[in-house]
Design goal:
Elements (H helix, E strand, L loop, with lengths): L14 H10 L10 E5 L7 E7 L4 E7 L15 H16 L7 E5 L4 E5 L5 E2 H6 L7 H14 L8 H10 L3 H10 L18 H9 L2 H16 L3 E3 L8 E4 L2 E4 L6 E3 L2 H21 L4 H32 L10 H26 L5 H4 L4 H20 L7 H10 L3
Antiparallel strand pairs: 1-2, 2-3, 3-5, 4-5, 6-8, 7-10, 8-9
């Protein structure tokens, strides 16, 4: 076979190509390395390869972006997202050290990013479905969110520098996916939606025929499109977080752009709610179930309350904009984030049930009656959060609403 040329033009690599790429392009493995490669990606967009030196026990991840999404070739997506992801990870590593993987190399021709292998971690969604607890997770993820969100905003950054970042991370193709799949398509009878048959009538009643509700989603969509508040991850769910007992790593920031801070916080909360409804539906009654549900509820409570505490503390330490120091402005600013957080939690709960992209927390519930009940809870809870978002300001508000809507 002729030697591949990785310097001229892009092509989608296979496992054997990646081994050759690692040998020829990267200065990572030893000369006597014995390399193997496996494609391990299970996301909707990219190809993820794990390359292992079986002889010297070294490994890396090579993530390649293609011109279309893996979930559907209807989504034409710019491979520039790989450049965005590489640069974002470097920025986040400086702002939240140890909470994102290290980036070793970015290749603009092959549209791939070479990064730290996290195979000693587990995807958070998988861990939650296995009913595992992580005592440091909420501390880590709140630190990550506060640091990456507040420190990239106008209240801290020099404004021209921040505007340069806004330009550099304009991400129109992936932002459009969020605009469509999160804010638009779930709320009408869109042909691309994938609705569990027992849930379809409820979706019609709760959303598609409620003009007051639809107006609120329109307001939220335009805020998402126009509020360049800070550098957000843009897809911060339990499938984008790796964990082990003493470590948390946030991955996949390819949807990143300058948007509303509450978008990231709300996504994290929503996926703890998905874990909660899954545990309610699938675990056998008993002490183990009670303990796990209690831990998930405590996590939801602390996600909000610890985020608020750390946000206030970091604001007091780092705020540089003069007018942001006026009495009452910090409270106003944080209240807006918390309102957006509640709304996005609700949007994510709804769109993952009645939109195109589902979550295993719901789809793996085997009992049809239990799944329908779980979906109903998510939709009703989600709508309440969206419609009453200005009143949902602390962790207890979420737990009180959960208890009031218990199946």
């Amino acid at each position: 076979m002729s030697k591949l040329d990785f310097t001229k033009e892009y092509f989608t690599m296979k496992e054997s190509d990646v081994v050759e790429y690692a040998k020829d392009v990267l200065d990572f493995f030893d000369k006597d390395s014995v390399l193997t490669c496996k494609e391990i990606g299970d996301g909707n967009l990219n190809y993820v390869f794990r390359v292992v030196d079986e002889k010297n026990e070294k490994s890396i991840i090579i993530k390649q972006a293609g011109p279309v999404a893996r979930i559907s070739d209807e989504f034409k997506v710019s491979p520039d997202r790989n450049r965005i992801e590489s640069e974002i990870l470097k920025i986040q590593h400086s702002l939240a050290p140890g909470l994102v993987p290290k980036v070793y190399h970015h290749d603009a021709i092959m549209n791939c990013c070479v990064m730290e292998d996290l195979s000693d971690h587990i995807i958070l969604r998988t861990a939650l479905l296995q009913h595992k607890k992580f005592p440091l997770l909420i501390d880590h993820i709140t630190t990550y969110m506060v640091n990456t969100l507040l420190l990239t905003s106008d209240v801290v950054m020099e404004h021209k520098e921040k505007k340069e970042l806004v330009k550099n991370f304009i991400n129109p193709e992936l932002s459009e996916i969020s605009e469509d799949l999160v804010y638009t398509e779930p709320f009408f009878d869109c042909s691309r939606n994938d609705v569990f048959e027992p849930t379809e009538k409820l979706a019609e009643e709760l959303f598609w025929n409620d003009e007051k509700f639809l107006l609120e989603t329109a307001k939220l969509k335009f805020d998402f499109m126009t509020n360049a508040q800070c550098l957000i991850h843009g897809d911060l769910h339990s499938g984008s977080i790796f964990v082990k007992e003493n470590s948390t790593k946030v991955i996949d920031p390819e949807f990143a752009f300058y948007g509303p801070a509450g978008y990231d916080v709300g996504n994290v909360i929503a996926h703890f709610v998905f874990a909660l409804v899954n545990a309610e539906a699938t675990m056998n009654d008993g002490q183990e179930k009670e303990d796990y549900l209690a831990w998930l509820k405590e996590s939801i409570l602390n996600l909000i309350d610890i985020f608020k505490y750390k946000f206030n503390k970091l604001w007091n330490e780092k705020v540089s904009e003069r007018v942001a120091k006026y009495e009452g402005f910090k409270e106003y600013y944080l209240d807006r984030i918390l309102s957006d957080t509640a709304a996005v939690t609700g949007l994510e709960l709804c769109r993952r049930v009645i939109g195109l992209a589902h979550v295993k927390d719901i789809t793996t519930i085997q009992d049809a009656v239990e799944r329908a009940a779980a979906e109903r809870f998510c939709l009703v809870f989600g709508k309440e959060l969206i419609m009453n978002r200005d009143k949902i300001t602390d962790g207890k508000n979420y737990l009180d609403l959960i208890e009031s809507l218990k199946r």
